[in-house]
Amino acid sequence: MSASDASAAGHTNGGTNPAAAARVVLITGAGSGIGAALARRIAAPHTALMLHARGADDASRQRLAQVATDCTASGARCATVFGDLAERGAAEHLIHQTLATFGALDQLVANAGHAQRQTLASLDPDTFTSAFAAMPAAFAALVRRAMPALETSKRARVIALSSFVAHRYRADAPFAATAAAKAALESLARTAAAELAPLGVTVNCVAPGYTRKDHGPSADNATVWTRAAEATPLGHVAEPADVAALIAFLLSDEARHITGQVIHIDGGLTLG
Questions:
Q1: How far apart are CA 44 and CA 16, in angstroms?
Q2: pLDDT tens string 33-52
Q3: Is residue 10 part of a domain?
Q4: CATH number for the domain that contains residue 46
Q5: What is the 3-state secondary structure (H, E, C) of the chain?
Q6: Does 272 reside within a domain?
Q7: Sign of CA dihedral 249, 251, 254, 258
Q8: 271 in a domain, yes or no?
Q9: Alpha-carbon gap, residue 234 to 229, rounded angstroms
Q10: Does residue 269 fall inside a structural domain?
Q11: Tell me: the pLDDT tens digits for 69-122?
Q12: Pairing state between β 107-110 and 23-27
């Protein structure tokens, strides 16, 4: 999907007048998992949500439409937009679409991403390049384009979703490209935190551990989730809502003095 698709696919769904929105929040990867759980958690009157998904197939588009419908039912004003953030220009168009639709952007949650098991020995250049394009490069482009809007907001927040794979390295669970991309993402987020702090903008990373999926090949694989729970000191994997609760707090006024942090929510997975 091209960058032009990313700017043209958005549409609004009910809700209040955008001028009345107390905050405008952009969530990437909002069609499922953590992104969808977060959207549903923070949806409320006087909140405007730009919900993004890659939209690679009809099922993906339908999932995002359902999230938007649920959020609208909670009183939020919603718009949806599709695009592959790994493609050049897509991130900038996503910010443009948000500003064109709502006239502001207060909070950015860079949640879109993926984890791919791959050893360093089998790592091919295309996979490595793709991981960096979709995660740290897309994040940097989103933040750069969003900076002027964030600087004028009184509730400016940026959250990037990292992962335990950037902190826990095991030969039997290799994530060579993903781990490198997520580590780079964390570094960029801390750079952004330092640069934007004088403007009152907070930037933080959330690093989940094993988190249950609601679709995909492993979603119903009981063996996979049993092993993940056994590897987690607390004895269970996270639900998307667990991670969404932490992100919602970091977006709140109560978290205004937290910035430049990587906060783990992994059941103790990275303790040792």
A1: 10
A2: 999 999 999 999 999 999 99
A3: yes
A4: 3.40.50.720
A5: CCHHHHHHCCEEECCCCHHHCCEEEEECCCCCHHHHHHHHHHCCCCEEEEEEECCCCHHHHHHHHHHHHHHHHCCCEEEEEECCCCCCCHHHHHHHHHHHHHCCCCEEEECCCCCCCECCCCCCHHHHHHHHHHHHHHHHHHHHHHHHHHHCCCCCEEEEECCHHHCCCECCECEHHHHHHHHHHHHHHHHHHHHHHHHCCEEEEEEECCECCCCCCCCCCHHHHHHHHHHCCCCCCECHHHHHHHHHHHHCHHHCCCCCCEEEECCCCCCC
A6: no
A7: positive
A8: no
A9: 8
A10: no
A11: 999 999 999 999 999 999 999 999 999 999 999 999 999 999 998 888 888 988
A12: parallel
- The structure tokens listed for 52 are 């993004």
This prediction has a pTM of 0.91
Amino acid identity of residue 157, one-letter, is R
User: Would you state the structure tokens that stand for residue 218, as one six-digit string?
Assistant: 């492993």
Q: Which residue has the tokens 């999907």?
A: 1
Domain that holds residue 239: 3-264
> Domain tally for the chain?
1
Look at the block and give the residue holding tokens 């960029």: 188
Please identify which residue in the block is written with the tokens 């937009």: 81
